[in-house]
């Protein structure tokens, strides 16, 4: 047992020092149960050495996939059967194997259920951290995290929306009405987007979208579709509020100098400010003359 422990320790150090740790990490559960079965065979199973099988199975159930758990449990149960058959003489190895197997299965299932519950909780917390609670759209943080991938290859367009005179809604009708207006615009934005588009609440009454593969014409059509739908919905609800949008398109012109996502968002924002200056309730496309625009 001492030499087996030393060998496992040396193997562990070599594993973590290896540059291919990710590739061999998947073997850890199987090596653990196989080694424990060898220890059961070498030692006296009457002293409780079978309980050591619980440790690699607990480790597997917590850190690895359900497929790895089933595989490790199968190897452990089969290895235990062989070890007991070769070792046990005084009592029935079948009875010992059944008792140990039932215990191991229950322990593994319990640990696996705990791990799945923790994963669900982590998923809920991740959603809360990246989702706007009012509109259920991705928030600003999620927008920039996901937009980096959506805009990574090929042409794309950035569209920034802002609700016109939104403060008047809050001042005249209260914040509950303002929240309802934000949800109404979020619904129009979501309905106007394609399946591969990214839409988000950028902050306050400002929303943003990244349209993968969109050119000037399709990006403007999207912005106009959302603006018009919200305009009609707001009139139907009796709210005097409209929206304006600014559009910037990346990768459309050959030889166009590379720019960051932040730069294209800033350009769409500048076009949005021009739409505000032109009377609001409009869509404008970024032009180099928009540089240096200020919010209105």
**Separation of the first and last Cα atoms:** 77 Å
3D shape: elongated
Largest sheet: 5 strands, mixed
Enumerate the spans where pLDDT stays under 50 for 5 or more consecutive residues.
none
**Relative strand content:** 5-15%
What percent of the residues sit in helical stretches (DSSP H or I)? Answer: 55-70%
Total helix count?
11
| Overall mean pLDDT | 80
From the alpha-carbon coordinates, what is the Rg to the nearest angstrom?
31 Å
Instruction: Look at the helices and sheets and give the structural class.
Output: alpha+beta
Oligomer: single chain
Order of helices and strands: HHHHHHHEHHEEHEHE
Number of strands: 5
Biggest sheet strand line-up: 2-3-1-4-5
Q: Any overview of this molecule?
A:
With 296 residues, this protein is an alpha+beta fold. It is 61% helix and 11% strand. The chain has helices at 2-17, 21-25, 28-42, 54-63, 66-87, 93-130, 140-150, 166-173, 175-192, 216-237, 261-277, and strands spanning 156-164, 198-203, 206-212, 242-250, 283-285. Strands 2-3-1-4-5 form a five-stranded mixed beta sheet, sandwiched between helices.
Write the SSE topology.
Layout: H1 2-17, H2 21-25, H3 28-42, H4 54-63, H5 66-87, H6 93-130, H7 140-150, E1 156-164, H8 166-173, H9 175-192, E2 198-203, E3 206-212, H10 216-237, E4 242-250, H11 261-277, E5 283-285
Parallel strand pairs: 4-5
Antiparallel strand pairs: 1-3, 1-4, 2-3
Task: Based on the model shown, name its key terms.
296 residues; alpha+beta; 11% strand; 5 strands
Write a compact overview of the structure shown.
This protein has 296 residues and is an alpha+beta fold. Helices cover 61% and strands 11% of the residues.
